Hints:
Helix content is about 35%, strand content about 25%. The chain is α+β, with helices and mostly antiparallel strands. The strands form five sheets. Strands 7, 8, 9, 10, 11 and 12 form a six-stranded antiparallel β-sheet that branches.
Amino acid sequence: MNLHEYQGKEILASFGVRIQRGIVAHNAQEAVTAAKQLTQETGTGWHVIKAQVHAGGRGKGGGVKLAKNLNEVEEIAGNIIGMNLITPQTSAEGKKVHQVLVAEDVYYPGESETSEFYMSVLLNRATGRNMIMYSTEGGMDIEEVAEKTPHLIFTEEIDPATGLLGFQARKIAFNLGLSGLAFKEMTKFVASLYKAYVESDSSMFEINPVLKTSDNKIMAVDAKVSIDDNALYRRKQYAEMRDLREENPIEVEAGALGLNYVDLDGNVGCMVNGAGLAMATMDLIKQAGGEPANFLDVGGTADAARVEAAFKIILKDPAVKAILINIFGGIVRCDRVAQGVIDAYKNMGTINVPIIVRLQGTNADIAKELIDNSGLDVQSAVQFQEAADKVKEVLA
């Protein structure tokens, strides 16, 4: 589950991480009120107005701007709220901005220069350990840094048995070229950041940039946070932060129906029971010359009503040119799935895409008979390769 910047910062602050302070505003007048409050609390006269959407690269799309007075706060916030923000991480249509974060200006003058760093905490799947990735090149796309100057990216893996050790935090501060007060501040920052990551059950924390201010404070100026969906049952305070407006509406609807659905960019809809079989089915579609339009696992207890609901979800995607239903009947009975397909077909009226159904396992013979005798334009298959051939045939 992705969070907005202001929500990620709330989590960071709760674990003692210094953040760039800010207040959320839903319209221009709220933004002015927020700016006034920040001025009273921090003394800042300038404010940064940041669009709150689940996408990176907001500044490139015009979603992050500096306001030097209250008139500019009102004007900039009014222009950003309601806009469709297009960034390198959004679709061509962009994402509608419903709120902005009015943040304090932390790039204040001082005796020493400011510095920007990159830092993230995530799981290294190759080793099964958490790791801290960091770089001196903060404020830039980390992908670009990795491509052009990979020697400027460092990683520190953490042993799960010991957690982050003091020498590791100091090593990070040293590699970032810090000394004196800034060095001490960074070691505290790293320790608090890692604690926030672990104890919030997050799958990723990305801070870009981490700022060393001119008076040697270390703070998170941005925060991109993803919480592990599987842990939300014990992190209900974070589950309440979910913003459904930022998510794919079809995926939200499927989730409400208890379906494991991920929207993809292909042309062949998939309905499968079991994640492993679903992945194999997607490979099958690729080999047949198609592209999977979705990942859809109906689960092991699929009945006719559940299959019908899944059917309707798949057909909401206008890019779908064919549907492959691949069910192995272990817990689920194949005849129930077949009946769900037939019911969905009849209830939805005309369906203009070819449907291939492969049912194997419990009551597969009864299921095939139901499909073959339904009078519907549904093709049945027995073998995996047979299903692949039929997909290839209908896409030709």
